Amino acid sequence: MKFLIINGPNLNFLGIREPGIYGKQDFTALIAYVETVCAENGIDCETYQSNHEGDIVDRIQAAYGNTDGIVINPAAYTHTSVAIPDAIKAVSIPTVEVHLSDISAREAFRKISYVSPVAVKTIYGKGFTGYQEAILYLKTLLADNGRK
Ligand code: DQA
């Protein structure tokens, strides 16, 4: 099984950026955590981070035909982008949406996600653990569909 883990804008500033909301651990620690979870579960994983919407669209398109599942934290693009959910729909790769913070309990604009309708699951407010939950959810979903 091959997964692509995408992190959107400003997540490369984890640890520096609003630690009261996003935690004190930095982006390198998040990537190490995700890679460990994937390795423990026999999943090939590639990670990708970008601050640019079109680059994220390009990366999703590049996954077409060679990736079993996507975990994405679209960050601020969650609440503004139509192109990212369109790309997810275009490639038909099962995708779990993750947010570190509880987007349901913050500003009103964060309650709207354009990605949720195309995601097989949305996880928020669980910090790094949300990525583990997303990876395990996709693994089970794909195993049930007969993928190795
Ligand atoms: C976020 C929540 C978004 O509202 C915000 O713009 C982010 C990070 C999260 O992980 O909690 O950049 O996706």
Task: Quickly describe the structure.
The chain is α/β, with parallel strands linked by helices. The protein has helices at 19-22, 27-40, 53-62, 83-91, 129-144, and strands spanning 2-7, 44-49, 69-73, 95-99, 121-124. 1,3,4-trihydroxy-5-OXO-cyclohexanecarboxylic acid binds at residues 10, 73, 75-76, 78, 99-101, 103, 110.
Describe it.
This protein has 148 residues and is of the alpha/beta class. The chain has a single domain (2-144), classed as Rossmann fold (3-Layer(aba) Sandwich). It is built from five helices and five strands; from the N terminus they run βααβαβαββα. It has a five-stranded parallel sheet, with helices on both faces. The termini are close together. The model has no long low-confidence stretch (mean pLDDT 97). The protein binds 1,3,4-trihydroxy-5-OXO-cyclohexanecarboxylic acid (DQA). The site of 1,3,4-trihydroxy-5-OXO-cyclohexanecarboxylic acid has 10 residues, from loops.
